[in-house]
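Record type: ASSEMBLY
Status: queued
Input:
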Amino acid sequence: MTILTEQHAKALLEKVLSFSKADECECNLGGEVGGNIRTARNTVSTAGEQSDLTLSVQSTFGKKTGVATINEFDDASLMKVVKRSEELAKLAPENPESMPLFSKQKYEAPKSAFDSTTNITPDDRALAAENSIKPSKENKLVSSGFLQDATTFIAIMNNKGLFAYNKSTNVDFTVTIRTEDGKGSGWVTRDYSDFKKLNTKTASQVAIEKSIGSSGAKELEPGKYTVILEPAASVQLLNNMFGSMNQRTADEGRSFLSKLQEEGKEGGPTNKLGEKLFDERVHIYSDPMHPEAPTAPFAGDGHRVTKTDWIKDGKIVNMPNSPYWASKTGVEYTPTAYAGSGLFGGPSQIIMAGGSDSLEDMIKDTRRGILVTRLWYIRALDPQTLLYTGLTRDGTFYIENGKIKFPIKNFRFNESPIVMLNNIEALGKPQRVNGSMIPPMKIRDFTFSSLSDAV
Amino acid sequence: MQRRDFIKLTGVGAGGLMLPMSGFAVSADQLLDKPMDVAYKKKLADIALNAAKAKGASYADARIGRYLNQFVTTQETRVDNIVNTESAGIGIRVIANGTWGFASTSNMTPDSIAKTAEKAVAVAMANSKFQTVPVQLAPVKGVGDVSWNTPIKKNALEIPIKDKVDLLLSVNDAAMSNGANYITSVLFLVNEQKYFASTDGSYIDQDVHRLWAPFFATAVGKEGFKQRTGLGNPVGMGFEYLDGKEEDKIRISGANVGYKNSYDIVEDAVAAGKQLQAKLKAKSVEPGKYDLVLDPAHLMLTIHESVGHPLELDRVLGYEANFAGTSFATLDKWKSGKFNYGSDIVNLFADKTQPYSLGNVGYDDEGVKTKEWDLVKKGTLVNYQAIRDQVHMIDQKESHGCCYSQSWRDVQFQRMPNVSLKPNDKDISADDVIKDVENGIYIAGRGSFSIDQQRYNFQFGGQLFFEIKNGKITEQIEDVAYQSNTQQFWNSCTQIAGKSDYRIGGSFFDGKGQPSQVSAVSHGCPTTRFNNINVINTARKV
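Status: finished
Output:
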């Protein structure tokens, strides 16, 4: 049993803390139970189930900290892991940035775990595979996909009275469907907390239509185009941008949010908090209570996480920071929420406000433009301007007078999300993707720099 | 341990440092515990093999692994984290009903191992209803009891933590005394103690060591900020890699120092500080066509992306279509025997045998003795990278020996071996390659690398860019990236330096598969020239 109840987790962590001799001790218990199925060439290639339960103990003496982790839970093992972390702490040099642990917090209670997801069986996974393989075969197409589901829990307790617990469930489904001659390729992604919301049949149909529709792509000249970015196309650019919004790197002059020292003025760089950098419709926030994208209402250090605006009316209104930097600069500590599983270190949860139009409505309202299914192999070119490069993939289409006219060859783009969020023409209805909520976006003057032969 | 746990443990969130490691933290002294007795491992492995056979497996292999890692992270004048991890367990793979099955456990009691083997058979049986073509394994003759170990001189895990911390803090000091304002330096040490047994009659005990010491330095000026990473390589070596011997240094006139089989990390940090200041003031490149001279610490990643990945047979066949993609190097191109991958001086080979390389092992993770083979010969595509259940698809009878799993917990599959560019028979130097270039750019270090899912179109950047005018390096420039097409690029290769300039670079954490697994892979090459390549300017006003 690797998913512990709140009560069970609490009892276990109380026992761990009773073995601690450190000035400060924080325990972090995480468990996961889940499974996956992978398909390729219209057949199952691999399938498996996994479960894991790990306890991490952080001990601090003065400003010296050590961390040790274990996956055995008898009393002797628990004593051993506490002792190990204390030994490592004694070996470590003092960290001048060490901060005291947080005391008891009050948390919100998101509905982040669903029995429908916890109860997924190997047969459910096999059916998901069949739902993309069968129609692919019927259409003389080749399907490759992946479905992964997990129930996770995380519990944090420290010797300052803090205790946090959250259980969440997630299921991710992606499928790439290609034509037999390799000249067409379509893709779809879906992720939910509640397995009941996942319809692998209709999702696969989207990939099938894109696959058939993308065959026989025409070449367009590279240049600046109006694009409609599906949520899966922009989520990584937005995540990358959000990952660069840290207050400390901005204050230190090494971020796109740094304000360089003006000529002739004293002092170092400052940050762009409060400045309007984007179109006034841009509103980006995080919210563990979001019904479509719930996540743990606390950070990895147990501090509570509540709804936080990061960009509002196009202005930077908050910047993620650490307890140390917040204290040093005299601002409030604003941790981020993590997307999906609620475990820490993954991509941050981003909720971007949008409108009410569907993707189809947005296509109807477009005189000339390009529909982008997804962007691939995104890499940073310049951290100062957040210029990124990457390529379109698995369904790129030319739109004319409100209709998809023909498929086009894939492009390489060189563009910055800063430019993208300034050139907004329209925002559609946000959809969940990678644990975040992102609207389809119509963007003018998006820069494509070269053509790719890849399908 | 998953990637997200690693980040929490190291306290580092930067994209470049999102490095997954397997294992649980243990105290420093425990890393030096004696490995498990070989005879006992053999006994446990036999329990797995016999249990699988008893349940109807036609083939089975067992991998008993103990994976030790240590990472030390420092920033400027402070130590951010010291973490030791250990992970041990057994992974059992079987063929039943012509279908693969796999299961793993960290519980190494005989009963648990037998049950895990039975579970692997049950998985195979369940999946066999979807199987359209039975697994076909290339034959491997059992090798009996054998052992192999990375030829290290200094076991990095035995070096006191204080020495490691002192080294990293001296690196930080060197960079910051010479122009850097911020720096993160890290030491990653990996020891894989792997025991492989199969129903073919092999019992293979291997002790594999790898090391990487990267740094990431930043300078902030009135003009903005610039970054420079270290030019050292991840290697299949012990702590002796950090000895920084003079005979391993290749000094490129007017540019950087290249490192062969040992790395002077403090010297490189000094250079990084100075070069960062030069970067802040450097002129921005004029876009256009240039002859490029690529340093091995840069070209290795170009080889990785444009040769290594497209020639993975599972990608070519479509098994990675939903994740990493497929390949332009399709079977018909290979079958024609005439596919012109590069110019006729281009010879690219694969191996898992080069000393100091990350891929170097005696046997792969399905018990095949490792070897060297040609991928591109005199510019023509001649082969792929394939393992036991794949080689029959390219009409070959012998596995290439490039099967790998990141841990006992995960199933092994085809992974990229070392893929390297053969040096020129004539032993010319990097300076000799530069001296014939009229209007060019010399690029060192790995920067931004992006390539499409079939590996045609790529755009690559570097760490350091130097203008070449009339055969000489003139000045440092900035904002350079080159865009090309794989076949066009390798066909524009006009000059390759000789064996004295040959250096091995690598990627410590190459990702592939769903669920994703990492592997470490090296790429050897000398300084090489490519003519008339499209260079773009990556600076942009926003």
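Annotation: Residues 3-230 of chain B form a domain with the PmbA/TldD fold fold (CATH 3.30.2290.10).
Annotation: The CA atoms of residues 252 and 431 of chain B lie 6 Å apart.
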